[in-house]
Amino acid sequence: MGGRPLSASRPEPGPRPVPKVPGQARGGAIIALLATLLTTPAAAQVIPTGSPAADILLSQAIAEHRVFLTCSALDPLTHRQILTNWQKDTAAAVAILTTHNVPPEAITAFTTAADPKALMPAEDTPWAEVKGLCDTHPDWQKTYYEFNLTILELKLPEVFP
């Protein structure tokens, strides 16, 4: 029985150290949200509006509606309702942004990123990818119908001075 003693070849028991990942301490949710946005078909982005809180709300609503619109696509009635409500909410958001003198290029970037065609997967997207997105959000319908989502018409006015 030569070699090193067992205690020398195995680490001491106890909690494992948590690896340091840049941006994961406080901004992990924001980084995850931005990663979701950057993987949209058009990779559309929100241009800063002058209010970081507004930028976060816009990005969050876009990410949420990417899931809602995509996952409701096989249920025409639900999809139509979500689409109609999203179009009303984005129109209200544009009016609020305009009222608060947000630069026109930021408003255009938002409307481009929020366009339902930009949020839905391309027609040639493999079903497995679409199903994969919806599988990562199994409660999307409950979230939507319980209004546990970002409604820009209600939230945006709160973030502007």
Verbal overview:
This protein has helices at residues 6-9, 28-38, 52-71, 76-99, 104-114, 116-119, 127-135, 140-145, 152-159. The chain is globular, with a radius of gyration of 21 Å. It contains 9 helices and no strands. The model is unreliable at 3-43 (pLDDT under 50).
What labels describe this entry?
161 residues, disordered N terminus
List strands and helices in order, with pairings.
Blueprint: H1 6-9, H2 28-38, H3 52-71, H4 76-99, H5 104-114, H6 116-119, H7 127-135, H8 140-145, H9 152-159
Helix pairs in contact: 2-3, 3-4, 3-9, 4-5, 4-9
Please give the largest β-sheet. none
Give the number of DSSP strands: 0
Given as residue ranges, the uncertain stretches (5+ residues, pLDDT < 50) are 3-43
The gross shape turns out to be globular
Helix content: 55-70%
Q: Strand-and-helix sequence, N→C?
A: HHHHHHHHH
How far is the N terminus from the C terminus? 75 Å
Mean pLDDT: 80
Return Rg in Å: 21 Å
Structural class: mainly alpha
The total of helices stands at: 9
Strand proportion, as a percent range, falls in under 5%
Could you give a short description of this structure?
This protein is mainly α and 161 residues long. Helices cover 60% and strands 0% of the residues.
